[in-house]
What we know:
Elements: H1 3-13, E1 18-22, H2 26-36, E2 40-41, H3 42-46, H4 57-64, E3 70-71, H5 73-81, E4 86-97, E5 112-121, H6 123-132, E6 156-165, E7 170-177, H7 180-184, H8 187-190, H9 196-226, E8 231-235, H10 237-244, H11 258-262, E9 266-268, H12 279-287, E10 294-296
Parallel strand pairs: 7-8
Antiparallel strand pairs: 1-4, 2-3, 4-5, 5-6, 6-7, 8-10, 9-10
Helix pairs in contact: 2-5, 4-5, 6-9, 10-12
Amino acid sequence: MDFVQLEEILACLQGERTLFRYQRDTYALALIRDYIGTGMSIAELRQSPYAQLLQKTLVKQALAMAGKGWLKPIHLDWIAAQQSALNFVLTLASWGTERNSERQYKQLSRTGYHLVLQLNFANDHQQQYSRWLKEVSPAEFSSWAHPVVKNGRHETLAWVRIDLDFAANQALIEEIQSDWVRQVKSEWRQQYYPQLPEYREQVLKPYAQIWDEAALAAAIRLIRHDLGIREIFYNSFETGNLMKGIRNNQPPRSLYSELPQKFAFKLTNEVPQFLQDLRQTAKAQRAQAAGARWYKLPTQELIYVEEKAAA
């Protein structure tokens, strides 16, 4: 998107911190809630693109409350409210460039700017973190070359980069990443901070287990409920790397295959409208036997053709 549009979004949404609570698998409750609207029969839901989520324990609990086989939002909300969740603080930032020569360096599918959603630790984590690692400077386990909070108020666990087009009513999840989890596991850092193993096991472990789920769930909520955009695309591993020009130091494949599939994204040859006329899109289509492919999140308004995901 262009910088003016990004500034308008930030002006509207930035401000007081946003508390976000998340527990494993609650993304399934949120996705189904969005899909059913005011309610839907369980039989119909079993035939929907979200049928795979009905096997989740939390969803089964909600289904058990559905009288006469009719699932309502209140059933999902009640189950979600009963969960003991981790606390996060969400903040927004920007990322990008207007220089075509810097597009690949910034790892952008197209030249322009992205909205960044930062998933930060809340105070309860920070208090424990300070007890274990008293002498560690702010952002010690984050790269300042990445879109993390840099003012010391919060520590960024993970972030999501989002490109979007309001005219097309589409958004693309360009990147999901965490420096923190990877850096804390680093043997090199452990020689300087011998207490890292204790912090990793006693404090970080529950966050490390769900950071990718929590980041994607928060991004979907932002895109759908705050920005009002319904169609959400997500980079596949091969196409995303080709579009962004990533040849070395490629991201973990699971973040661009297993994670979107877990959320019921479907692999498609449909190209996001704002990427259709780009030279790098044509190049990515030629470079792959099946053509360029993205994941897309199902909605009731659209019919999707299932495709077998690339290995």
